[in-house]
Amino acid sequence: MDRLLVLVRHGQSDWNLKNVFTGWKDPDLTELGIAEARAAGAQLRDLKLSFDIAFTSDLTRAQHTLELILAELGQEGLETIRNQALNERDYGDLTGMNKDEARQQFGEEQVHIWRRSFDVPPPGGESLKMTAERVLPYYRAEILPRVLDGNRVIVAAHGNSLRALIMDLEKLTPEQILKRELGTGTPIIYRLDEDGEVVSVEDLAD
Fold first, then answer.
1. What is the DSSP letter of 125?
2. pLDDT tens digits, residue range 82-115?
3. Closest Cα to residue 130, out of 172, 169, 163, 171?
4. 62 near 10, Cβ under 8 Å?
5. Model pLDDT for residues 167-199, shown as the tens digit of each residue
6. What distance in Å separates the CA atoms of residue 98 and residue 44, rounded to the nearest whole number?
7. DSSP label at 143?
8. Domains of the chain, each with CATH number or no CATH
9. What positions does the entry give for substrate binding (predicted)?
10. Out of 10, 67, 72, 158, which one is annotated catalytic?
11. Which of 18, 105, 154, 167 is deepest in the core (most CB within 10 A)?
């Protein structure tokens, strides 16, 4: 049985381009982001991969990325489940703020702690630990059972919601996952065993 799980971070968004903390705000893809999503679809098509079901967040940039990927695969009508459990980490009071301006206002070290510590949230927002606490129960309840039943599943989401998943799948420490960079529009292909453990992983950015 082919237990396939593909994770894709959305293509570049308008606020990525502007170097702004985005979180749960809802900008769409840039022209580059659209091209990245189409390229991701082409990579998967070249590998002759197709899917039985798709999951994405409640945010436009992830949904648009998924739509473009599925169009490249000729799977425009694929069943797609959207849920805010897969949304990006909530940056709270930093949302909408330029990252350089945030460093000027709060200091380089404090912003670095908010961005790169595992369990220190920005004011009014979520840490990566808190993000994982909403992503992982949803994954285990809704996504993993589909994979274990032999469905080929694609998930289009965000840098930090996917980090939470990757940390669990690859059994990484908080220190290891915080160093993990996820390229925009780059598929990561997992094959799992009957217990949901990773048998192989292929990052198409490599």
1. S
2. 999 999 999 999 999 999 999 999 999 999 999 8
3. 163
4. yes
5. 999 999 999 998 888 999 999 999 999 999 999
6. 34
7. I
8. 4-95+147-160+172-203 (3.40.50.1240)
9. 9-16, 22-23, 61, 88-91, 99, 115-116, 159-160
10. 10
11. 154
Quick check: is 10 catalytic?
yes
Residues making up the annotated binding site for substrate are 9-16, 22-23, 61, 88-91, 99, 115-116, 159-160
User: Of 36, 67, 72, 88, which is the active-site residue?
Assistant: 88
Per residue in 45-60, pLDDT (tens digit) is 999 999 999 999 999 9
pLDDT of residue 116: 87
Nearest to 11 by CA among 41, 32, 42: 32
DSSP 3-state assignment of 43? helix
CA dihedral sign, ordered 82, 83, 87, 91:
positive
Amino acid occupying residue 196 = G
Please give the C-alpha separations between residue 172 and each of 27, 71, 177, 178, in angstroms, as whole numbers. Answer: 31, 33, 6, 10
Using CB atoms within 10 Å of the CB of residue 45, give its burial: 0 to 12 exposed, 13 to 18 middle, 19+ buried: middle
Helix or strand holding residue 137 (H, E) = helix 128-138
Tokens of 112: 């670095």
Q: What is the number of helices (H) and of strands (E) in the chain? A: 9, 6
Rounded distance between C-alpha atoms, residue 87 and residue 136, angstroms: 12
**What pLDDT is attached to residue 206?**
67
Determine the Cα–Cα distance for residues 53 and 4; give it in Å rounded to an integer: 11
